[in-house]
Amino acid sequence: MEMVEKALHIASKAHEGQYRKLTEIPYITHPVAVGMLLMKAGYPDNVVAAGILHDTVEDTSLTLEDIKLNFGEKTAEIVAGCSEPDKSLSWEKRKEHTIEFLKTASKEIRAVACADKLHNIRSIRNDYEQVGEEVWKRFKRGKEKQKWYYTNVVESLGAQGTFALLEELRNEVELLFH
Q1: From 5, 16, 58, 73, the catalytic residue
Q2: What DSSP string describes 43-104?
Q3: Three-state DSSP class for 27?
Q4: Which terminus of the chain, N or C, has fewer Cβ atoms within 10 Å?
């Protein structure tokens, strides 16, 4: 089975029964959209597969070892780089770690993280257009903390130079928060 198709199959099974935050939208739509953004931007199959699998280790029973066995070391490294290392920490500590880590992460990890955030921010913006300020009630930390996080992620992702997906993310963050 081709790598991207295999990633779609495994991620679909792993995320079965999960939904996007406070919606009836099946969760799998998010990793598929992330993979599509990466594919459209011209990234190789292992990066696209990592984008599709980026939330599996964090949110399902799949392990990094499972990903390494099915997709190889490089794809597993990218997924590991896009996963929060310690879910027991506070939201602020986890987000601070992500912001710092992305400054020096590999270009593949930065691409997947960027595509992930780009799809998230577009989803938030779409929901904002539907329900207005109510959208921020979905987030325990509210609008100002989301603005802080996304603004800092954009800066961290650009620490090693800019790329097309980052410019799209920067524009979306600007549209939503300014």
Answers
A1: 58
A2: --HHHHHHHHHTTHHHHSS--HHHHHHHH-HHHHHHHHHTS-S-TTS-HHHHHHHHHHHHHH
A3: coil
A4: C
pLDDT, tens digit, for every residue of 22-71?
788 999 999 999 999 999 999 999 999 999 999 999 999 999 999 999 99
58 is known as an active-site residue: yes
Pick the catalytic residue from 5, 16, 24, 59.
59
The answer to whether the beta carbons of residues 92 and 85 sit under 8 Å apart is: no
Q: Report d(CA 116, CA 6) in Å as an integer.
A: 19
Q: How far apart are CA 139 and CA 145, in angstroms?
A: 9
Beta bridge partners of 19: 26
Structurally, how many domains does the chain consist of? 1
Amino acid found at 6: K
Domain of 49? 3-177
Q: Is residue 55 annotated as a catalytic residue, yes or no?
A: no
154, 166 Cβ separation under 8 angstroms = yes
Provide the whole-model pTM.
Answer: 0.96
Q: Rounded to an integer, what distance in angstroms lies between the CA atom of residue 151 and that of residue 6?
A: 34
DSSP SS3 for 158:
coil
Residues 170 and 174: their CA atoms lie apart, in Å, by 6
